[in-house]
Amino acid sequence: MTDNAVMIKVSDFEQRLLVNGMNRFRNDLIREDLPTEDVDDVLLKIIDAPPAKKRRTEREAR
Q: What would the mean pLDDT of 4-23 be, rounded to a whole number?
């Protein structure tokens, strides 16, 4: 399997929405007594993602 990384930009609200959705999915898996390792890994990546650096535009540089 190849490691193709994909980066997306999301707002703070969208990141919280992703975390909430993944956590609910994880809870469903726990209720059904299914493994959660893969979901745990993705959830941690979403939580630990660094905020995007703000770029200076030409207008701000003046």
A: 93
